[in-house]
């Protein structure tokens, strides 16, 4: 990919932009629930407020959107799937959605691609009992090239129409071109963009659907090549919103040739386009800081966990419409609702600390996996996200060491190997990867997955060999 010199928001402008979120209560994209003047308000038995959610106003449609959005990529599952392969626990999903709505969440983000194709139907069932003006539904044209039929107008059109049936709605509030900027072995990122949305006439069709009211807001989600991002923003198209990855690491330290979030957000800010935020925790990475880093955060806000810091950072930008979180468990919703009920934007002192935290994080050899599952299923059964999650977790917990003279080496070695076997079945571990490379073009983070698997496999083998010498 051609290297691009990005125009960045410098630190001074960053501080100005973020600080604006703290004082812009009357601006178009900022606002809290009417009762934010009171400290008490209504709460459920668990102490989580029901009437303190922070809301942002969409300038295009004047939707009052909850700053916390419900991401539907990962739902609770059953021990065994049904005959269709659907393993979603619908009763559990219904309970999560009921709780979310009762606590002010009204934005739900799904895709035909999520949960092996069953996410739209699951969220459609969960929302069916609510009045249509009680929620905003977002879904995507996920016509990825794995299935060449989806690149045709007919195939893409069928996917679009099927979403209405699965969601059981007549109007889709927020519709996205899904994950633009990627590439395949056969097509570069620009060619793939045009094949998916332009050459087949789907973008023109979707613009007409917006005119007819079938789509209320049209946007796209971005991963990958910045030239595609800039190209879409340069088109004579009114984008109602754009979904980007933004967190306090990727703000200025995006990895693997990804684009810094300060550039992505800055370009939207220039054009007054609201941003929808994905990966505020970077696939959960920022919810698991090591003890030393966590203790530094606790010195300022003793009651906040690492996730709260990440969500506050993402929500502090005034042109952010909503911040998505994949909340599989009730505790996730409870914690995130408390963070945004109401939002307390990051302060000047906290921003400096987060910059220092990032500098420390950069010293560790983390694999920049966000657990999006796009690489799955592996044709050879490798649990790619699970292996990367275990590796990163061991880094956080200090159970990663290559120095045999380190006093902690034996303990770290044992913990790494035992936990690997507990969490990942033997036949799904790194040594079974044959480096076929089928996963590489699917990864939005551009991780060279076979190389990382080989690195971990070598590390595991070295640990096992050392066990015979200790």
Q: Quickly name the level 1 CATH class of the largest domain.
A: Alpha Beta
CATH architecture of the largest domain: Alpha-Beta Barrel
Q: Assess the beta-strand content as a share of residues.
A: 5-15%
CATH superfamily of the largest domain: NADP-dependent oxidoreductase domain
Order of helices and strands: HEEEEHEHEHEHHEHEHEHHEHHHHH
Give start-end ranges of low-pLDDT stretches.
1-8, 10-28, 30-40
Strand order of the largest sheet: 4-5-6-7-8-9-10-11
Could you say which overall geometry the principal axes of the C-alpha atoms support? Answer: globular
Q: Quote the CATH topology of the largest domain.
A: TIM Barrel
Report the major sheet.
8 strands, parallel, barrel
Structural class: alpha/beta
Radius of gyration: 22 Å
The portion of residues assigned to helices is 25-40%
Mean pLDDT: 86
How many strands appear in the DSSP assignment?
11
Q: Helical region count?
A: 15
- The rounded distance between the terminal residues' Cα atoms is 46 Å
What is the number of domains?
A: 2
